Amino acid sequence: MLASESFSYPEYNHKLQKDNVFLDTPEVTEPVWLETKRGTIPCWINGVMYRTGPAKYKLDNDTVITHALDGMPFAHRFEFKEGKVRYNSRHIAASVEKALVDKTQAPLFVGYTPDKESWICNAPKMLEPLASDPTAVLAGETISAVSPVVPFEKDGKQDDDPLVVVARSSGAYQQHIHSDTLEPKRAFKYDELDPQLEGIMSSSHAQVDPVTGEVVNFMAHPATGITVFSHQSKSNTTTILGKITHRKIPNATTDPVPIEPSFIHSFWLSRNYVIIPELPLRLKNGGMDAIQTGSFATGLAWDQGSPVYLHIVSRVDKQHVASVQVRPAFFMFHDVNAYEENDELVLDAPIFQDADIVMHTHMFGSNLILRTDMSFVQDEEKVNGMTYPPSQDDVPVCRLCRFWIDMRTWQLKEHKVLADQFEFPAVARPMQPYRYAWGASGIVCSRVSDTKDNNSFPQMGLVKVDVHQGITARFDKQHWVCQEPIFVPKPGSDQEDEGVLLTQVNAFDAGGVENLLVIVDAKTMQELAVCVIGSFAASTLHGSYIDLSQA
Q1: Which residues take part in binding Fe cation (predicted)?
Q2: Does 265 appear as a known binding residue?
Q3: Was 76 annotated as part of a binding site?
């Protein structure tokens, strides 16, 4: 069954959000020094935090983006120096917006369903946008100053930008932006690094080996499988680590079964292995349902009866060595950490028991104060294996979970829940045994009612988990929506949790919303400083930090 015949996801989405509950974020292209509202910024923070996320939903009077993750992406830059912070931001997909308004092009969205006639006519342009226009791609899922990129020249001169900053997507195209102004410089594909890296899907969460400096990622194609690669920027060399085409079940007595195209948002990296999860959230009809509607979510189906397959690729032998079955199945967006200890491979991740959370993302981080009464009600049902429409009062629980895999037999030995309500993770010690993980206290905000005027305010805090003892500590403020924390270690300290968390916050009240930069002590989870960015909302999904004192 094709998406147009299956269910009323687009209709429900539009009716639920007909009043445009997402507030636009203004650009701040000229850098400004932020006011410190209270507290003191530690003087030892000397670097730049980049963040990115959907920021513009109302394109003109007729075009309104109605899915939280599909707003036009902005890049945000925070430069810390001597106890002060300088901020600027930029819309990085201006040509995509113009094409949507002019109905000449429509990208493949996460959940928003574009005008059908416009989409069908212009789908080929979306799949292969004009690469010479750096703002013609949607690449605002993650952002990093440690990314593989083809050497860049302009007007015959080598690029002199001191940092290589890339806004990443889960598709083929990535976006190289200026490290200071945030202006897009070029769009590129990974197959420019190596012709073998053909495909239409990758992970926006590329992994970085802190020891070797290698960046590891993959390219996937529904017809040809997954190609895992590493890139060393110092030598500008790319290495193919392995290709995944079939499930390599240890001691199997039957022929290997081909992998199925599935949703892969992130993966794990350890000292010797790359671990790619094949989740039972599959691309229906080889991806044709998504192509037909222009909405990725309509092309996905959850198979509750299928296990998860963890495909193990050896960084040493450069081949796919095994596929580990995990039952019962689970769904994940992000990884937390992976390391090898004795004969065990340890994998940590925030997991959901199924993929129902995918339907909940349409209201993620909703910027507008929400009324408790709903004007549009629809009975719940299972559609493509997921509960639809999503219940606003029954948000799926996300749990930090650990998996132990025996590297001698490639069998799952054990799995255990370490903490509840944990997502958007950060750690201080990647690829090695660790004790602490920080994150947001749930992927979807809980709503705290204001009985005075019957408004409902979103709220989400930060959490610190001691993975040894299962103890959690929280940072919460009423009506604050804290976004992904970025951990910054204190220079010279050998204590794992000695440092700060940097988070961007939307602070709501009956008078509106204020966007804040908040600095939290990573050890005590107490507030250190609050800076005012502006009287607007800005929802960022992910970010990264680079220490300029060591750059």
Answers
A1: 205, 265, 334, 542
A2: yes
A3: no
